[in-house]
Design brief:
The complex is a heterohexamer, with three copies of chain A (about 450 residues) and three copies of chain B (about 110 residues). Chain A is mostly helical. Chain A is built from 15 helices and no strands. The chains are: A mainly alpha (about 450), B alpha+beta (about 110). Bound molecules: adenosine-5'-diphosphate (ADP) (3 copies).
Chain lengths: ~450, ~110, ~450, ~450, ~110, ~110
């Protein structure tokens, strides 16, 4: 309050002076922008709970505690990792590939109009999201200690590097690659890591029959999944809206928000009807994933498209997600919660969507294909997405291989049968509840 | 003495409890089970993958009775459980050699009721 | 950030000039008001999760997934429906009965001091709330496809029409009918729809004994219910507080918030003691419903009553809720989660409360009965509530009848016995958990 | 909107005048500060759900409904109690021991730059937190009616008194005791109350073997625990950040937020490794508690330490928590959810941390030991913590004894075996779910 | 050989396990059940509607033993399970004609232990 | 007629179902149980307190068969359930005196299938 009081008096005093006056309103802008970015950061942080609920709900109860623990600890790891070196690599200077100042957040200025610590918090929450996406894809069989190592590496090194290229003034930014809130930076990074991870880990025992046809291992708790999706959707308003890094342009933030909401709704509806048509029933897991798919898809273009376009982008995202789940099953890739279709495939789709629906009047570097901008922006977007995908898969393949050599990636089959909760943590998630496990 | 074990449809349990009560069978033990029989199951889809579910939820009754109660009990169970649809279930009767009431240590017919 | 920087420079420049200066602070007001309304919209959106948890928790596990799916999809339907035509009907012009511009949000100006898209988001979240209230009242037996149809109609047509009358400059607004945040517009609309719906559907098999006495079908997951109530309570701060549509009057927003909180607390306590006295035990479901009842009751008058009055309003709301649940059981109406007592009865009660406790110094059109305003405001409130109730029940009766004719409202008895999760979605909400269902 | 419009015109008018101009920007500051404090209050309120989920998840299913009911009702009781007299005792004047005006919030001015009702809401949410901490420590055996009485007393009297000493201008404030957001005021008060309560209640039947060795009674629902921890962590950003009571100093708020986050992460990681080393497995419950421990520890010093220090404070908090749980088991104290180690022990630790890591340049009254400030601040902090601990334990011992005499604190053994849900509320939390209870 | 089935109070399970252990009965199968007997149930209220709950939680033990172990086992169960309150439960003894150890295929007395 | 009760490892259930199907045993009742035997349990730690868990999850099968089916059924169960590890489980055979199909009232051999 001291500070506050001081300010008010300041105000009264300044009332008689021009320039300072201005200083006063710019103080207000800083305070207002900081408030919005911080609140957005809290909402993005809260998404961590959403990821945890979705992931735990879609797997079997015997592994629920393990994934919740991974989900909790990867955010903790990300907090430290992004504090120690992640931030420096991502935002510590304009080098094309890496930043290099601001280790431990020391000797570095905020690159934007809000305090460094507020900016860090917002970015750290993003980093945590990228890390936790992977837990689901590698669920029900990955060793806990291996996961801890992975989560530190991705949040301290891999994610920041990609982030630097696109948001830290790196080479992709230089090319005019546009990813407003992270379809590529966050979701493609997480999604493709999940892809290479789940391939390296091999499918869960019993997830595919000898003839290669998939077995459905049902999620053990759909209310958790539904709750998680709502938490994620809620958090996404901060994820996208907060990426405006301020309230300087209310129209912009409002447009981002409506686009985010419409894409999510359209994604869920499209996924539901696609699943309904394909499999005969409106599937919960797929419809819920559809909402997330729409959200991932709108993340890159949310600022530079019209609500109408947002609906198309979301719809296609939802459909893509259903087919994606199906393709992976077909190819014998076991992604228990659909991390790859939702985050990898739609991360790419959202990135490309900028090149299709983006409008320069709304802030896109160039008009998209459908607005007479021709293919140039689309090309840049495709280039960026592809290179990031390969960089991530390559580097993470290396990381996972190393971890495998050091401590082993996968739990023993006995442990897998009995469940990772017992094997890794010596406890049950529902001790006292009787659980009928026929898998 | 006999031990009567019946597998019935879960939603018939209230009816069976009632008809047993009317037949003056007041003591039963109930547990739940999954049944696999003629009754056809249903398609389950999870994330687009189909699975034939044919283990259907059932309720399992255990009733220890004196020999002269057997038929009455069987009849009561049938009354309560029958819907005339496949899946109504089965009644199994085995010989009960001894029955002991934990509280009192009484044995045999005394302990049954 | 570009925009932001631009602003700051603007500031420095303007410092030497009067009028522009003013422009600058009014920009700040717009930004601040937009921020608050958007955050409030996020909180109202999040209430959707609260409704889902409460509804799922209070019914049987075999139908949990189905209601969560309905709850998710009705918001998606509402998002599209309210975008396509709902908004236009509600806010597209001053006609007494209907608005008529702004289809797809095109060619329409924001009616308030914040961007159109922000205003839409806030209103759309309200629309979704009205739609989802009904899911609970018709739970455990309504066909999913029928629900989808219903949810589109209510959010695209019925809700917007009532909304127009009261908030869109329609005839009730003209009469001086006062409903600050929607006791009537949102809750009575949802609640009375649930009433006519549950009557048309008939009770759940086994919910009443042959002698008409009610059977209690226990909720399968009370932790979800408790979580849901907290989420709703949390969201309600945005629901009521955000209805100020800005922070222009901090005193007002603060009063709304304290009233909202006190009414909820008083409602829960009153419901608990009423149930305790009536049934011998402090019942969880009723006490939790009591909190919601208090919240619904304070929604209309929250801005224009004192905290003291808020406590009375909430208390009466809680008591009314307990008796309401009891009455419905008595009359053989099967409302599985208490949607009618909470939203319909208390929606009316809250609307009337404006005519009893409202104070013109606080912004009420006239003083209420207890403040020497006589019966006139109360009369207007009663008139509005009654007409809305009849309009809603009539129109929704028609809608449900039509849907019934088209696809059928109710699932088959076999499906009901086995559960809608299996019947409608071919899955179980707790696959792997063994559930003992003796109903 | 009326008010809002009025303001804008005001603006235009004032544009030509100096002093009023100032008034105008100070209006903006008030509005902005109020917005932040209100949002923070909502987040703190939401922590109530977090406490509920953590407490319910860590105990047995047969008592889950009971604790959720306690958790809900204690906030309702706190709302009323803090409205009726709590606020007056805490903030109603500068007396050394008690405030004495503002009963029912009447005839009292807001002590800060935001509306009274907004300030009350924020403080009331804090009061609720202090009250609900205790539910967990006394879980699974305390009578519901006794809990209701207790919760009214603590929130109407005991908490406000301590609060007055430290935040209401009482004698501890006078000594220069510094507790920014309530390590002592909220957490130590709740934690030590839980300690005396659980000692008076005696352990749960079967929690200790005849030889005094502890039995582990497993938590019945770990997903709830994980969700609860995330909700608490989320809410804590408001808890600590909102204690700045405004956005007047964005740097300050940003620093608080990053410190809060880093301490939580460090706490969880430290607790995890400690448990891993001590017990051979990374224990979920302890790691999650570790995050909470870090949050409690950083609450007092969050504003006046560097992020680096926050990490140390959080780490030590996490370690202290693991040992604390162990010590209590050793001494035969049965604290089912770890309320004492998390809130009491770490409340004290956080309070002392101000005297170790605090920096006057950041706003601490004096530099801490590690910044050359010597022992004086540490001494004051220790004194305050000790006196508060004794005052709380003494007064609450009296309160519990009285309640015990009046209605009895503990349920009958039969009721305990069967579960409090059935005994106290005549219901089951998971009616329909089959639960295997071998305790 | 005999198959001993006992219905006991859930909270007595630890005690029964111990007394069986002391009686050198090391192998048991446990399942849960709901019991309906003399022991009176309790009132349940949900949203103000009352329901008499008389299906009480029980634990069900199955123990296959050689004939010479029967009495010892029964005694051990009674020791562990008895609280002298209505609801303590029952012990049922049926004749076990054959017992096969899946792992080895051993039969009869060999397979029991 | 005989009543065959088998205790198997949960994760072997699908295999057992299959081998029973191949042996033309189409009707079974499944329930879950906790088993206590030679198979050693595992350490559980909750908040740092250790507990030896030796009640392991098992699945319990009940199959009523005609006498001439007994051996085939036993063999099928063993085929499906055997992993040659301690904990594979047991098969118990008791005499089934009567079997009634609730739906039709058929008795004996007729009712079994
Ligand atoms: N031979 C058997 N052994 C064990 N359980 C059986 C047997 N026959 C039937 N059951 C149980 O009875 C239930 C109903 O049997 P089913 O064949 O489906 O209908 P119905 O008894 O009307 O012919 C099955 O799900 C199964 O649980
Ligand atoms: N005849 C019976 N058949 C099946 N189960 C029985 C029978 N008698 C008792 N039980 C089981 O034993 C439990 C305890 O029996 P109860 O009559 O309540 O007490 P007690 O055995 O002390 O008389 C019952 O809940 C029921 O599960
Ligand atoms: N005598 C018995 N009575 C009841 N159940 C038994 C008996 N022996 C074994 N079981 C059941 O069979 C399961 C496996 O037995 P166990 O001794 O662990 O392995 P194995 O049968 O391979 O020797 C046990 O967990 C228990 O459930």
């Amino acid at each position: 309050m001291r500070k506050k009081a001081l300010l008010s008096t300041l105000v009264v005093f300044m009332a008689f002076t021009g320039p300072l006056q201005a200083a006063d309103t710019s103080d207000l802008w800083v305070a207002l922008d900081t408030l919005w970015v911080l609140i957005a950061a809290f909402m993005v942080f809260f998404m961590q709970a959403g990821f945890g609920m979705v992931e735990a709900g879609l797997i079997r109860s015997k592994n629920a505690g393990n994934i919740l623990m991974k989900n909790m600890m990867d955010f903790c790891m990300a907090s430290l990792g992004f504090f120690i070196c992640g931030y420096a690599l991502m935002f510590g200077g304009e080098g094309p590939f890496l930043g290099s100042q601001g280790w431990l957040l020391m000797n570095v200025e905020s690159p934007v109009g809000i305090p460094l610590h507020a900016f860090w918090m917002f970015q750290a929450a993003f980093c945590g999201a990228a890390a936790t996406i992977v837990a689901g894809g590698m669920a029900e069989r990955m060793r806990f200690v291996a996961y801890l190592m992975y989560s530190f590496v991705i949040s301290a090194v891999v994610y920041p590097i990609v982030g630097h290229w696109i948001w830290g003034g790196g080479w992709l930014a230089g090319l005019g690659f546009y990813d407003f809130a992270g379809s590529t930076v966050v979701h493609a990074v997480g999604g493709f890591t999940a892809l290479v991870g789940t391939i390296l880990l091999k499918p869960r025992t019993g997830n595919f029959n000898s003839d290669g046809s998939p077995n459905s291992i049902g999620g053990h708790n759909m209310p958790l999944v539904s709750l998680g999706v709502f938490i994620l959707w809620f958090g996404w308003f901060g994820f996208n809206g907060g990426s405006a890094l301020g309230m300087g342009d209310p129209e912009l933030v409002a447009r981002i928000v409506i686009n985010t909401n419409l894409a999510a709704g359209a994604g869920a509806i499209a996924a539901m009807f696609t699943a309904w048509a394909k499999f005969g029933k409106p599937d919960l897991a797929l419809s819920f994933n559809g909402a997330l798919a729409g959200l991932v898809a709108i993340t890159a273009p949310c600022a530079v498209v019209t609500p109408g376009s947002a609906i198309y982008i979301g719809m296609l995202g939802g459909i893509l997600c259903v087919y994606g789940v199906h393709w992976l099953d077909r190819f014998g890739v076991d992604d228990p919660i659909g991390a790859v279709p939702v985050h990898a495939f739609n991360g790419v789709w959202g990135t490309l969507a900028v090149g299709l629906f983006g409008q320069s009047v709304l802030g896109s570097p160039q008009n998209g294909v459908f607005y007479g901008g021709g293919l140039s922006q689309l090309g840049i977007q495709a280039l960026g997405a592809v290179i990031v995908a390969f960089f991530v898969m390559g580097s993470m393949w290396l990381v996972f291989k190393t971890i495998d050599a050091l401590v082993g990636l996968r739990v023993s089959e006995v442990e897998e049968l009995r469940g990772l909760d017992i094997g890794e943590h010596g406890m049950e998630s529902y001790s006292g509840f009787q659980i009928f496990s026929t898998e | 003495m006999k031990l009567i074990t019946a597998i019935i449809q879960p939603h018939q349990l209230p009816a069976v409890k009632k008809s047993l009560y009317d037949a003056q069978v007041y003591k039963i033990t109930v547990s739940n089970a999954l049944g696999y029989g003629e009754e056809e199951g249903y398609q389950q889809t999870f994330r687009g993958v189909e699975r034939e579910v044919n283990l259907l939820k059932k309720v399992r009754l255990e009733i220890a009775v004196n020999d002269d109660f057997v038929e009455a009990t069987v009849a009561a169970i049938r009354d309560g459980a029958r819907t005339n649809n496949v899946g109504d279930g089965k009644i199994f009767i085995t010989d009960l050699q001894e029955c002991i009431r934990i509280r009192t240590g009484e044995r045999g017919d005394l302990a049954i009721g």
